Amino acid sequence: MKEELVAEWAKVLGVSIPGDRLTEVAQSVESQIAGLGGLPSEELEEVEPATLFEPRWDE
Amino acid sequence: MRNELWALSMVDAAALIAARDLKPSEYAASALARFEAAEPLIHAFVSVDAETVMHEARLQDEKRGGVLRGIPVAIKDIFDVAGTPTGCGSRAMASSPPAAVDAAAVAHLRSAGAIVFGKTATHELACGVYTPPTRNPWDLERSPGGSSGGSGAAVAAGIVPGAIGSDTGGSIRIPASHCGLVGLKPTYGRISRRGALALSWSLDHVGTLTRTVEDAALMFSVLAGPDPTDRTTLERPYLPEPLLPAKDHVRGLRIGILDGAPFSPMEPDVKNGLTGSLKRLQQEGIEVVEVKVPELQTCLAAEFAIVAAEAASYHESRIQHSADLIGADVRGLLETGLLLPASLYLRAQKTRSVIQRALKTLFASQRLNALVAPTVPARAQKWDQLDYEFAEGTEPVIQALVRTTAPFNLAGLPAVAVPVGVSGSGFPLSVQVVARPFDEQTALRMALAIQRSTGRIESPNVLQTASGN
């Protein structure tokens, strides 16, 4: 992943990543994306994520 | 057999106090003496107020009741303790004001008569497996693990008989394994998280570090229960009573041994510890079958994607305004999490659903009462060690330690790390027992059977460790 892209992307999100850390962060993001976050999407069709909205009001 | 007060189990100390054979103030003074001797070597605590400890102990001298009356306990420094700042091991939170009220877990302990002895070191923001500057009482050149490393070192060194920690990807079970302790990570939603720093809302579990299984059951029975301010704890099954039956027969129970990735590779000593404990369980009449869950191979990717995204969200303001105050390892994870696409996070949560379903199917199809796996695949790392060298290749320490523990954070299942002996080179070995959702009882009963067949491992005498004896 291009470091410039990471720097711009972070800036849009309000975060300033110093130049000497850009390589590390870019590699880390690339590695996470390459890891797919788990299983490939073809194996996750029809699967609901393990997140649940609770409509009941807090006491 | 050691006769010093510091070597008492929590259950034994509580019984002596209840019978008025031991005064809480006498016990607290002994804990403080042990603290004075061991703490300069292990650096487990971030704060201990000896005057307050003795004051509370003297008050308990006059009281009656409370299953933990007069028992000193340590609190990981991510839990609020009224009147004390919650530093979370981070310069980014060093200026936090004192907490106004106790975290729910701390309040439960106090209600049962426990005395808050002090706050223990945590890896920064509960996100890491080293916990500097704390040292492992078994070997001062090694880490106690993390992130609840201060709690693990404090209990292993005999300063307190029990402590609380948090476990998002192994942060209780890793220190338990490294320090020769029992580490209990209950089912997700069993213990309230109110008043504790979040690392990853959907993966954070509150639990205990103790020297025996009976002590874990005692602390857990005090901590578990519904809390209206933490909705994950509501409408859960009640804990059975007694949690550990007096005359328990585990004969006929059936356990699955998790084989293959992500539990291998592992060091030969760890493998021997696992094999030995299984043989002893079989001699007790427990049926053992080997099982594989291929879906668990994706656990690390899902765990890190969820933790990175949720932690980045929780700490977003800190990343924007005080990132320079956060250590490089944790900062890198938070920055990564902020930049990950939402679709990746949701794919990880879908993967989690698949893992949960696979484990449910496994328990049903194999008629299992529990699963057993190595808690971690290797001995405690040296405090500056970055990689493990397995016969199969090199692996980063954090990846190796989390790959065996994270599956049960993702699945939310109860898991108990329990010692299975000491290796020839003198470090503790551990396996974890995993049970069905909300069936902590079976996990604890099986862990007790392992403890019974192994024999309690002796606590390290940290003072001898220091002098090289």
Fold blueprint:
The complex is a heterodimer of chains A (59) and B (469).
Chain A lengths: L2 H10 L9 H13 L25
Chain B lengths: L9 H9 L5 H19 L2 E3 L2 H12 L10 E5 L27 H8 L3 E6 L28 H8 L5 E6 L5 H7 L2 E4 L19 E6 L2 H11 L30 E5 L9 H16 L3 E5 L7 H16 L1 H7 L5 H12 L2 H24 L4 E5 L12 E4 L2 E4 H9 L1 H4 L4 E8 L5 E8 L4 H15 L7 H6 L2
CATH 4th-level superfamily of chain B: Amidase signature (AS) domain
Radius of gyration of chain A: 17 Å
Total domains of chain B = 1
Structural class of chain A: mainly alpha
Largest contact between chains: A-B, 32 and 39 residues
Beta fraction of chain A: under 5%
Shape of chain A: flat
Q: C-alpha Rg of chain B, in Å?
A: 21 Å
Report the CATH C-level class of chain B: Alpha Beta
Low-confidence sequence ranges of chain A: none
Task: Give the overall shape of chain B.
Answer: globular
Oligomeric state of the chains in view = heterodimer
* Main sheet makeup of chain B: 11 strands, mixed
- Tally of alpha and pi helices of chain A: 2
The tally of beta strands of chain B, per DSSP, is 13
Roughly what is the average pLDDT of chain B, rounded to an integer? Answer: 95
Number of helical stretches of at least 4 residues of chain B: 16
Reported CATH architecture of chain B? Alpha-Beta Complex
Can you describe this structure?
- The complex is a heterodimer of chains A (59) and B (469).
- By secondary structure, chain A is mainly alpha-helical.
- Chain A has a domain at 3-35.
- Chain A is built from two helices and no strands.
- Chain A has helices at 3-12, 22-34.
- In chain A, helix 1 (3-12) packs across helix 2.
- The model of chain A has no long low-confidence stretch (mean pLDDT 87).
- Chain B has 469 residues and is α/β, with parallel strands linked by helices.
- Chain B has one domain: Amidase signature (AS) enzymes, CATH 3.90.1300.10.
- Helix content of chain B is 39%, strand content 15%.
- Chain B has an eleven-stranded mixed sheet with strand order 1-3-2-4-6-5-12-13-9-7-8, with helices on both faces. In chain B, strands 10-11 form a two-stranded antiparallel sheet.
- In chain B, a hairpin with a 2-residue loop joins strand 10 (387-390) and strand 11.
- Chain B is globular and about 55 Å long.
- Chain A binds chain B through residues 6, 9-10, 13-17, 21, 24-25, 28-29, 32-33, 35-39, 41, 43-44, 47-51, 54, 56, 58-59, and chain B through 202, 228-229, 231, 295, 298-302, 304-306, 308, 319-320, 323, 328, 331-333, 335-336, 338-341, 344-354, 356.
